[in-house]
């Protein structure tokens, strides 16, 4: 009979590996290498600080001058955000 593992679940190393942002992304979150989880957090901090969530549909993010080159359009849904940002990480 196998005994259940008592160790805590380890975070996925791929999420914790620091990645370098492109120049476009660095304009929003800064130039230092950070894990993916921190990148997402910093982008949301920026979106909330500058009040960029669409008033009528909070799931949409309106791009300002810094986010437009990152998104490639004027508005994206929060579900597209991660995919678009991943293209700017090395």
UniProtKB/TrEMBL annotation:
It comes from Orrella dioscoreae. Keywords: Isomerase. Its EC number is 5.99.1.2. One of its GO terms (molecular function) is isomerase activity. PROSITE patterns: SWIB_MDM2. This is DNA topoisomerase III. InterPro entries: SWIB_domain, SWIB_MDM2_dom_sf, SWIB_MDM2_domain. Coiled coil: none annotated. Pfam families: SWIB. Residues 14-90 form the DM2 domain.
């Amino acid at each position: 009979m196998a005994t259940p593992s008592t160790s805590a679940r380890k975070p996925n190393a791929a999420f914790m590996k620091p990645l370098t942002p492109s120049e476009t992304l660095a304009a929003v979150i800064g130039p230092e290498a950070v894990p993916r989880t921190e990148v997402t957090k910093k982008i949301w901090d920026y979106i909330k600080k500058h009040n960029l969530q669409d008033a009528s549909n909070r799931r949409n993010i309106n791009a300002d001058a810094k986010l437009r080159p990152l998104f490639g359009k004027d508005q994206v849904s929060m579900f597209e955000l991660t995919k678009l940002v991943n293209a700017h990480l090395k």
